[in-house]
Design brief:
By secondary structure, the chain is of the alpha+beta class.
Length: about 240
């Protein structure tokens, strides 16, 4: 009986975590470059039950013991790209992340809504400098960025954007990522004058939210049923 209580409780906790992730996805539907988080659950080891009688042992089947905490991972599929005609706006098509210099070291992001600061550096909305192979990207006058990240001014190449693969990247905020062993990206294209929006499908996320809510309610009803049965067993058997 107590096992049933714990099994239902683990299901409720997992669905609460799932709802939190879905709510965060929906809150960032308009965030430039945001990548949705997906969740999975891992079941605890199952018990194999047998029935023992005079004729021997008969297998009954497996008994689940609930689920472990939710595992969260990032979905790096491409989001829709919208043209802005702002030369400082950059979108990545394919697998890749921009490298930026933050107060906590080099981090990576997909959002390409950059600006040029008063020192003519290409920076993020927070003021973090975008990195190229020759250091922070500094621009003078008009510039052009090719599909492979080459930055040209006038007739010459002045720098090249550092683009890293999404493999092994761990999210450390709404759009910043980190990795112990960053790998240079290979299959990507830079689109200048455009922004990639989030890859959130609002309708799909709302359906997932409804499903998680119903799963939570089902586990809650099962927990209440187990609790009522346990209460009756304790109270009525005590009187017998």
């Amino acid at each position: 009986m107590l096992r049933g209580l714990y099994t239902s409780a683990t299901g409720m906790v997992a669905e609460i975590d799932r709802q939190n992730v879905i709510a965060n996805n929906l809150a960032n539907v308009n965030t430039v470059g945001f990548k949705k988080d997906n969740v999975t659950t891992t079941p605890f080891a199952e018990l194999f039950l047998n029935a023992y009688n005079k004729r021997g042992v008969a297998p009954i089947g497996r008994l689940g013991l609930g689920v472990e905490a939710v595992t969260q991972y990032v979905n790096f599929t491409n989001g829709p790209v919208h043209v802005t005609n702002n030369p400082a706006d950059l979108a990545i098509h394919g697998s890749g992340l921009f490298a930026v210099e933050t107060p906590n070291g080099i981090k990576y992001q997909r959002a390409g809504n950059f600006v040029i600061d008063r020192d003519r550096y290409l920076v993020t909305q927070e003021g973090n400098r975008v990195l190229g192979e020759n250091g922070p990207v500094q621009l003078e006058g008009d510039f052009h960025i090719t599909e492979d990240g080459l930055i040209t001014q006038g007739q010459g190449v002045v720098n090249r954007l550092q683009i890293f693969s999404t493999d092994g990247m761990v999210k450390m905020g709404e759009y910043l990522y980190t990795s112990e062993n960053p790998i240079p990206a290979e299959n990507y294209q830079i689109v200048q004058g455009a922004l990639e929006h989030s890859n959130i499908n609002t309708v799909y996320e709302m359906v997932q939210m409804i499903t998680a809510t119903r799963n939570y309610e089902s586990n809650q009803k099962a927990l209440i049923a187990h609790d009522d049965t346990l209460g009756k067993a304790v109270n009525e058997l005590a009187r017998a």
